[in-house]
Amino acid sequence: MFLKASIILSYVLLLSWFSTVSEGVQFNLTLPHQHPDPDVAVQELQRRVNVSVSKRQLLWNVEKDQSSCLTGNPIDDCWRCDSNGQSNRQSLADCGIGFGHDSFGGKGGQYYEVTDSSDSDEDNPKPGTLRYGVMQTEPLWITFASNMQIKLKEKLIIKSFKTIDGRGANVEIVGKGCLAVEFVSNIVIHNIHIHHCVPSTGSQKSDGDGISIIGSNHIWVDHCSLSYCRDGLIDVTEGSTAVTISNNYFTNHDKVMLLGHSDKFEADSGMQVTVAFNHFGQNLVERMPRCRHGYFHVVNNDYTQWKEYAVGGSANPTINSQGNRYYAPDNSNLKQVTARMDADEKEWSRWNWRSDQDILVNGAFFVQSGGGKQYAKASSMDVKSPELIDSLTANAGVFGENRYNYSGLLHTLNLVNFNGGEPSLEKFQA
C-alpha cells in the first residue's frame, strides 16, 4: 500500500514539474534540464552582451585605448582578458552563455594531452590518442601537444565531463563519423577544425555529421570551423537541451544545422538551443538552423547569403531571431530568410517566429508569425545594436584562419596561441 501511494505521489509531482505557469503562460517541461522560462535565459544573454560591449566602447571611444583585449563578445572577453588564463585554461568553462552556459565540460578534472594523432583501434585505443582521452569516465580537460590531423576510423564517442580544447595548436578532425555526443552531459568542444566527415558503417554507424548531439544536455560548441561533411555540420536531436553553439565558422556545406529529430518526436519540445556570434560563410545552402518543436535563440550571427533559405523549421518551434545580419543572395527568388515546412499558412501563422533588430541586407526579408504576451515579452528585450555584428563575430571559427566577410572581403584572424592575457598576434606557421 505504501509503495502504491509513493508511486501515485511521484506521478503527481512529475506532472507538477512538467507544467509550470509564469505570467499566465504555460511551459511544458518535457526534459529535465530545460529552462522553465527561456526568455529569462535570453535576457541574461543580452545583459552579458551589453556589459561587454559597454566596456569595449568605454575603452575605445572614451579612453582611446584600442590595444585592449576587449571585443564586446562576452565569451571571448571572459577568457582572453583573464590574466591567469595561461596557468588556468579551465577558466574557459566559466565563460559560457545562453542555454548551455552551465556546460562545464572537464572543469575540475585532470589535464590530458593528446600526443598521438593516430586512431588505429577504436575499441582499445592507445594512451596519448584523442580517442583514449574521450572514452575515460572521469572529467578531463583535453589539450594537444602539437599541430595534428586526426583521421578517424569510426565515430568518436565522447563520454561525459570532457573538454576538447584546441587552443595553442592547429587541430583537424576528419574521417568516419567524426564527433558523437550521445546521451551524455557537460561537453565542451573548442577551437577545432572539423571537416570532410563521412558515414561510418562498422560497429559504430553514423551519418557523417561533423558533430552529432543526441539525447544530451549541457553541451557547448565554441570557436570551431566546420565544412564539407556528408550529412549535417552540427545536428542536435532526440531530447537534447541546454545547448549553446557559438563563435563558429560554417562554410561549404548543404544542410548546416539540424535542431530537432523529427516532427513526431515531441520530446524535443523541451529542446533549448542558443545560436550566437557564428559566421555562416560562403557556399552554404540551408538549415542555419532548421528547427523543430523547441525554443531557439538565434542572436548576433552574420549570414553571408544562402542558396535556399537561412532559418527554417516545422512542428511549431519558437524562433527568436535578434540582432543578426542577413545578407540575401542576388537571386530575386531567394530573398526570404525563413522557410516553413510541412504546414500551411493557417497552421504556421500561430508559430512564434520573431525578428527583432535584425539587419536585412540586399533585399532580405524575414516573415514573422505568432503573437500573444510571450511574443511581446521577448520582442521588447534590449538587443545590442546589430551594427556591432562585425566586432561580435570577428573571431568566429578557429583562431588564425582566413575567411570572407559578408561583403566578400578576405581577412585573417591572427590570434592563435593561447597565452592567457592579450591575444598573440603571431600567425600560425604550418
Write structural notes for this entry.
The protein is α/β, with parallel strands linked by helices and 430 residues long. The protein has a single domain (44-411), classed as Pectate Lyase C-like (3 Solenoid), CATH 2.160.20. It has helices at 2-18, 38-62, 74-80, 130-134, 345-348, 373-379, 389-393, and strands spanning 19-22, 25-28, 110-114, 140-144, 148-152, 156-157, 162-165, 171-176, 179-182, 185-190, 193-198, 211-214, 217-222, 225-227, 234-237, 241-246, 249-251, 253-255, 257-259, 272-276, 279-280, 284-286, 290-292, 295-299, 302-304, 311-314, 318-322, 325-327, 338-340, 353-356, 359-361, 402-404, 410-412. The chain is globular and about 55 Å long. 49% of the residues are buried. It comes from Kingdonia uniflora. Pathway: Glycan metabolism; pectin degradation; 2-dehydro-3-deoxy-D-gluconate from pectin: step 2/5. It catalyses: Eliminative cleavage of (1->4)-alpha-D-galacturonan to give oligosaccharides with 4-deoxy-alpha-D-galact-4-enuronosyl groups at their non-reducing ends.
